[in-house]
Amino acid sequence: MEEKDKLDQITRRIIGAAIEVHKALGPGLLESAYEVCLAFELHQIGLKVEVQKPLPVVYKDVKLDCGYRLDLVVEDAVIVEIKAVDHLSPIHDAQLLSYLRLSHKRVGLLLNFHVRVLKDGLKRIVNEFPDSAFSATSAVS
């Protein structure tokens, strides 16, 4: 299976699981509640999930622990950044793109659970060129 197809399949499964969590819990809870429930749901459907995975910053060939944590990393391929905010803003996109660049991953999902319908709080960020800060393309899946 081609990498793009594999990533598409994983992101579809994550989105399906996120919709299940959102249907059950609705908006209004803390990000941590959605994170734990989504990790549980992803485990239930057979996906490998890492929660609060440390993300070091490499600066001038030195690995620095700056306290960054990835909310979820699914199948060692997709970063899931969970939010519970009134609306997503460009800084959230930039944050996820930075995480993709630092971790050398290609695809991330930005999920805002503080919406009536989850598809309104969903963004897929693709890091097309890992060495460029201006390489993101985003689309609502």
Explain this structure to me?
With about 140 residues, the chain is an alpha+beta fold. It has one domain. It is about 35% helix and about 35% strand. It contains three helices and six strands. The protein has helices at about 5-25, 30-45, 90-105; strands at about 50-60, 60-75, 80-85, 105-110, 120-125, 135-140. It has a six-stranded mixed beta sheet, sandwiched between helices. The model is unreliable at about 130-140 (pLDDT under 50).
The overall number of domains is 1
Structural class: alpha+beta
Mean pLDDT over the full residue set: 89
Radius of gyration: 14 Å
Binned, the helix content reads 25-40%
Range of strand content: 25-35%
Strand order of the largest sheet: 1-2-3-4-5-6
Number of contiguous helices = 3
The H/E string reads HHEEEHEEE
Largest β sheet strand count, sense and barrel closure: 6 strands, mixed
Q: Tally of extended strands?
A: 6
Terminal CA distance reads 21 Å
Q: Can you summarize this structure?
A:
This protein has 141 residues and is α+β, with helices and mostly antiparallel strands.
How is this fold's topology laid out?
Blueprint lengths: L2 H23 L5 H14 L4 E11 L2 E13 L3 E6 L6 H14 L3 E6 L9 E6 L8 E4 L2
Q: Keywords for this structure?
A:
6 strands; 141 residues; disordered C terminus; six-stranded mixed sheet; alpha+beta
